[in-house]
């Protein structure tokens, strides 16, 4: 869609909104398409395409025929209009507590497939004037991290109701198989995301774990389907039983892997097991449920742990290590980045984005008269120049005829924006399916988080309940997709530590903590100034100024051994950045720049680790230049992700990673195909 087409669609929309009896094609061609349609055939094609586009933006075009020509369609007498109320977002008025809860839910999605939808949905509520500007309690920033690109691709296919194709590692056989599936819904259980759908090859409903997908998810061209009436992903996934508890027998280097040792149900030293000369290893027995999840952790430990039993877990670790080693050892590819300045990878903005934004911008300005230009631009996440470009298009748009009184009237004198004529664009369009799903699913995932975050002492649970009821009513039929996405609660398991940190942030108090660092294999004591809390799924972190390191650090709540106020106020040396979201890693001048190659399945790691430069590869993968403050854990990183990431540069680091992987695999002797398939 070109800028001129954006302007034409806006004029067509205004024309059809501001007519009671409808407009015939002849008037539309003369007044809206006069500069673009060379003949009747060209006009007809453009008009039909534009009707489809407006429908995608939420506007249903009514076709009115002359009753005197009943039974026949006469294009010359057919008229078109858009009902002023049928496509508008109903009035939704939220209290400050409800607005805070909604903001928590919307920000969950951040970079996931529903992230843009959540942002647009909140902007519509702001544009309608029913959303109260609020601050998150104690800097709380919950986020979820769905299963990478597969999640985004499946959500897109669900929204378009297209069947998908992907490779899948069957849990029952351990073999990779091609599957064609009609995606009915997505949901998370037991720390994993699952797809529920109709398997065309087996002609039956099946549930697939996204982490077992071995290829990219692709849409089957020309395919379509209808999900079962009343389908609810949460109800379907309730039938899943948690995997049975198993025990792993592991040989672990003496004095290493403290985090793993803390979970051991029994430990025997080498001397206790077999006398002297056993290689300085301890035998641990550790409980686990999911072999795939546990294998990811154990693979990251490389040569420091050897899996003895069970065979399924051993094979899963070997398979992950071998995939990582094979990818890392494959021939290097040229490292070439675009000439553009370093920037995080972001979705390319389109003219569709511009029209969507302008349809939110007009009602927003109606309800927020006199805001500064830069503040409006900041609210919409665009530059000042982009906003001015939008306003220039808007002031040239209006009703057929183009007289001054028929145009949108917007001024931005002295850098403050006012609108005096909105031409019935004063209310935003109804939620789309993905917008409704983003908000309603996000609300269902908050669980007890609002109460833990200290939201309003007057029954915080009621705010979550009431805002859910209000948005369900406002979403109407668009809420269908919300039933197809079901996540688990993001409320932290470490509720005591969460509450202590929340109170310390609110009261400006320092904390004393004992912290386990798996990368350094040590427990340290720290005095910190807590700044804010944030999560990835249900794993919670807090950002703090660490006095022993004299810098900002991020701490995982589940690795905090003890935590309490030390009786001193915060030093004020550092404050939380205003940016959202909080960064999991804090850059410094001592960082090492590492060039990674990511497969399409691992491309999301570029965002997770704040790549400074990226370059797309022909196979859908990605080159990413990433800062690492400590490269000693890079071998763990590559091992953990088992064949979706490798180091290209520095070459020395790539060799060190390969040595780590080789040493890890050497523990298992010759790796046969049966070893790999067994998992």
- How many separate helices? 22
Work out the radius of gyration. 28 Å
**Helix-strand category:** alpha+beta
- The quaternary state of the protein chains shown equals single chain
Percentage of residues in DSSP E strands: 15-25%
Report the major sheet.
6 strands, mixed
Sum up the structure in keywords.
6-stranded mixed sheet; 679 residues; 26 strands
List the helices and strands and how they pair.
Blueprint (H helix, E strand, L loop, with lengths): L2 H15 L5 E2 H7 L8 H17 L5 E3 L14 E3 L14 H11 L8 H14 L11 E2 L6 H13 L3 E6 L6 E14 L2 E8 L4 E6 L8 E2 L13 H5 L8 E8 L4 H5 L1 E5 L1 H5 L6 E8 L2 H10 L4 E5 L1 H19 L21 H17 L3 E2 H7 L4 H12 L13 E3 L4 E6 L11 H13 L3 H4 L7 H16 L9 E2 L8 H13 L1 E9 L4 E15 L2 E8 L4 E6 L3 E10 L22 E7 L6 H4 L4 E4 L5 E7 L5 H7 L4 E5 L1 H16 L6 H5 L2
Helix pairs in contact: 1-12, 4-15, 4-17, 5-12, 5-15, 10-11, 10-20, 11-21, 13-14, 15-17, 20-21
Write up what this structure looks like.
This protein is an alpha+beta fold. 35% of the residues lie in helices and 23% in strands. The protein has 22 helices and 26 strands. Strands 4, 18, 19, 20, 21 and 22 form a 6-stranded mixed beta sheet that branches. Strand 19 and strand 20 (539-546) form a beta hairpin. The two termini are 49 Å apart.
């Amino acid at each position: 869609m070109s800028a001129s087409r954006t302007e034409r669609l806006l004029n067509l929309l205004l024309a059809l909104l501001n007519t009671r009896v409808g407009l015939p094609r002849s008037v539309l061609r003369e007044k809206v398409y006069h500069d673009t349609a060379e003949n009747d055939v060209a006009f007809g094609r453009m008009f039909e395409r534009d009707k489809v586009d407006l429908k995608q933006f939420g506007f249903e075009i009514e076709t009115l025929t002359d009753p005197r020509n009943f039974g026949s369609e006469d294009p010359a007498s057919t008229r078109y209009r858009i009902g002023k109320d049928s496509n508008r977002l109903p009035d939704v008025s939220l209290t400050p507590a409800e607005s805070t809860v909604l903001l928590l839910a919307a920000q969950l999605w951040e970079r996931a497939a529903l992230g843009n939808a959540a942002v647009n949905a909140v902007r519509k509520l702001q544009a309608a004037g029913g959303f109260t500007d609020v601050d998150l309690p104690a800097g709380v920033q919950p986020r979820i991290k769905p299963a990478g690109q597969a999640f985004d691709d499946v959500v897109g296919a669900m929204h378009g109701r297209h069947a998908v194709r992907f490779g899948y590692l069957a849990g029952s056989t351990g073999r990779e198989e091609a599957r064609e599936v009609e995606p009915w819904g997505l949901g998370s259980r037991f720390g994993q995301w699952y797809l529920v759908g109709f398997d065309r090859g087996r002609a039956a409903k099946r549930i697939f774990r996204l982490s077992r997908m071995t290829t990219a998810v692709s849409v089957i061209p020309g395919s379509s389907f209808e999900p079962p009436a009343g389908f609810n992903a949460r109800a379907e996934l309730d039938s899943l039983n948690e995997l049975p508890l198993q025990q792993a027998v592991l040989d672990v280097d003496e004095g290493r892997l403290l985090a793993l040792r803390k979970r051991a149900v029994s430990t025997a030293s080498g001397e206790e097991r077999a006398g002297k000369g056993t290689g300085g290893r301890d035998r641990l027995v550790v409980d686990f449920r999911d072999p795939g999840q546990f294998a990811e952790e154990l693979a990251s430990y490389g040569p420091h742990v050897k899996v003895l039993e069970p065979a399924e877990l051993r094979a899963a670790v070997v398979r992950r290590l071998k995939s990582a080693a094979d990818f890392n050892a494959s021939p290097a590819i040229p490292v070439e980045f675009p000439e553009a300045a370093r920037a995080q990878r972001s979705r390319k903005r389109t003219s569709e984005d511009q029209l969507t934004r302008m349809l939110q911008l007009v009602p927003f300005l109606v309800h927020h008269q006199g805001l500064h230009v830069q503040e409006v631009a900041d609210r919409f996440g665009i530059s000042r120049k982009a906003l001015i470009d939008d306003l220039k298009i808007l002031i040239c748009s209006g009703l057929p005829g183009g007289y001054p009184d028929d145009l949108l009237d917007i001024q931005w004198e002295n850098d403050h924006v006012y609108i005096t004529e909105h031409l019935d664009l004063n209310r935003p369009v109804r939620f789309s399916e993905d917008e409704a799903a983003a908000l309603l699913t996000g609300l269902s995932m908050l669980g007890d988080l609002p109460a833990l975050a200290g939201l309003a002492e007057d029954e915080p649970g009621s705010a979550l309940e009431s805002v859910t009821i209000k948005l369900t009513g406002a979403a109407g039929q668009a809420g269908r997709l919300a039933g197809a996405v079901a996540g688990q609660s993001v409320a932290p398991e470490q509720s005591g530590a969460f509450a202590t940190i929340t109170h310390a942030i609110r009261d400006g108090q320092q904390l004393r903590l004992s912290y386990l660092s798996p990368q350094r294999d040590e427990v340290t004591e720290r005095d910190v100034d807590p700044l804010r809390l944030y999560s990835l799924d249900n794993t919670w972190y807090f950002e703090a100024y660490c006095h022993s390191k004299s810098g900002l650090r991020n701490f995982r709540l589940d690795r905090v051994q003890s935590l309490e106020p030390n009786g001193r106020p915060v030093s004020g040396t550092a404050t939380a950045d205003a940016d959202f979201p909080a960064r999991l890693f804090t850059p410094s001048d001592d960082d090492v720049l590492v060039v990674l190659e990511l497969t399409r399945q691992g491309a999301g790691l570029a965002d997770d680790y704040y790549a400074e430069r990226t370059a797309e590869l022909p196979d859908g993968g990605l080159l990413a230049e990433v800062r690492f403050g400590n490269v000693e854990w890079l071998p763990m990183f590559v091992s953990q992700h088992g064949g979706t990431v490798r180091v290209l540069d520095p070459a020395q680091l790539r060799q060190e990673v390969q040595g780590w992987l080789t040493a890890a695999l050497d523990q298992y002797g010759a790796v046969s195909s049966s070893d790999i398939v067994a998992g």
